[in-house]
Write a structure and sequence with these properties.
PUA domain-like, 8-stranded mixed beta sheet, elongated, 3-stranded antiparallel beta sheet, 296 residues, homodimer, 2 domains, alpha+beta, 17% helix
């Protein structure tokens, strides 16, 4: 059966369920065991956050969610590396790339500040903002997903297009268009300085994307801004990239060596030398952080 | 003097000014005559909306703003075509491409629903969401910019990164990071169907952008969604594009002929034939609408 993304009619945010069986019967979360309901073809439509992974972090409106695999079911500790190509993990990447909403269900085993006292609670829709890997507390590679709550009460002028429409809210008609945010590109004064210096020429492919009146490029933070990466917004941490290479760089499809060779992570081959400018010194600490995030 | 983007300390939203001289002295809008304060190198930092162009539309939280040029100063009617390369118009394109905030000042001559009774009023920060051209009511080509009010009270989880920080609010310290939205990519179920059909292969360049676990592409609406274009979200109005060609297509740097040749609008040359799929019929009415928007 095809997955259903978004809210499930009849089960509003806050609905409580004694066991996973009831979650499954409600259509909120299909798997009986796995925390992730997802696959690489369709994406992931729901996750259960119930304290199953020691590296999980729950901050209420956002969650650092550990992927699937490598865990000993008895001790709940990591005993092997996780793989991003694991079905559930790849499903969450698909949901990130497409901007698909993920139902989040919290269980009693999770962070006591945000979890129900017993059983499971449906806590609404989140989007997958980013993903990356690190060596977890048990010494094995884990993949983590930054899940950010979708604000469905957003009253900004563009609320009808930048937030997700419930597919069919219980007892009502949808008030928004079924459009979700797939990608948000941000600019900072520091990034703009770097882009102007490079005249909007991509430091990876050498193309400058020209439109009817001007040029377009994007500032890529090497060590990502925001949690959990907390990279700084400084010139040494920014690259001027075209949108295509920015998507690749931010999703681990390319990385840099310490001598600033560009490597295609999918086949390990050198794509070329990063284009540099004398006034733009790239700090290798950020380059190393980026490689570590992608397990290189 | 370099332009200042964002709020001007000491002049909060709602500030009133008797004449343009006082606007200029306050630093809100530098030019004495022009409606647009901007140039292609820095972008546009402010506009005055005061009913100077018959094709302007004011909807409160968004404005369809007519660019500069081609107007008879006595009759205020268009007597010639406008050019997107005109300094102020190109400045607004630059602000769109970089996500720079534009101060909007409304004058007494504008739409009576939203304009001050006399003089000028500072109405806060807007972003340039899109631009395009059409033949205006006077029979000449005009360029128009969709300006959307930035919601600075947005309380969504990502408010600190998706909305703009005031550079230095009067009487306080900035509470947000100085980061602005440069580009928002949206997905719909219809677009996703088209992308899956094409296996995320760009219909213009033939590349499929692969990341660590999956592929990324974007659904481009040929006749744009949303006002003022109002294109429908239907399969015949969607292309599967890579991000680079999507930016080009949405900003008039490429267009399609009725036999689906891809034309580079910057030099008029044929880039190739659009890649098509038997199950994906493109409706030429939308292709023609897109060409008209870009004056082709």
């Amino acid at each position: 059966m095809a997955k259903t993304f978004g809210h499930i009619p009849g089960f509003p945010v806050g609905s409580l369920f004694p066991r996973r069986t009831e979650l499954r019967l409600a259509g909120l979360h299909a798997p009986n065991m796995h925390g992730i309901s997802g696959n690489p073809r369709e994406g992931a439509d729901s996750i259960v956050v119930s304290g199953g992974y020691v590296d999980d972090e729950d901050h209420g409106s956002w969650i650092l969610y550990t992927g699937h695999g490598g865990r000993d079911n008895d001790t709940k500790r990591q005993v092997a590396n996780q793989e991003i190509t694991d079905s559930g993990n790849a499903g969450l990447v698909k949901s990130q790339l497409e901007g698909l909403p993920v139902r989040v269900i919290r269980g009693a085993g999770g962070d006591p500040r945000y979890s129900p006292e017993s059983g499971f609670r449906y806590d609404g829709l989140f989007r997958v903002e980013s993903h990356g890997s690190k060596i977890g507390v048990d010494g094995f590679r884990i993949w983590q997903f930054r899940m950010v709550q979708i604000d469905e009460d957003d009253s900004s002028p563009d609320a009808d297009v930048v937030t997700l429409a419930p597919t069919a809210p219980a007892g009502g008609t949808p008030s928004r268009k079924p459009v979700q945010t797939q990608r948000i590109v941000r600019n900072t004064a520091v990034a703009q300085w770097v882009k102007e210096l490079h005249k909007h020429t991509c430091q990876v492919c050498g193309d400058a994307l020209e439109v009817d009146s001007g040029f377009y490029s994007e500032g890529a933070h090497i060590q990502a801004l925001g949690k959990p990466y907390n990279g700084p917004d400084v010139v040494g941490n920014v690259l001027c990239l075209c949108p295509n290479d920015h998507v690749r760089f931010d999703n681990g499809a390319l990385y840099l060596t310490d001598d600033l060779k560009v490597i295609n992570a999918l086949n390990g081959q050198v794509r070329g030398q990063l284009r540099v400018h004398a006034k733009h010194k790239i700090d290798l600490a950020y380059v190393q952080h980026h490689r570590a995030r992608w397990g290189q």
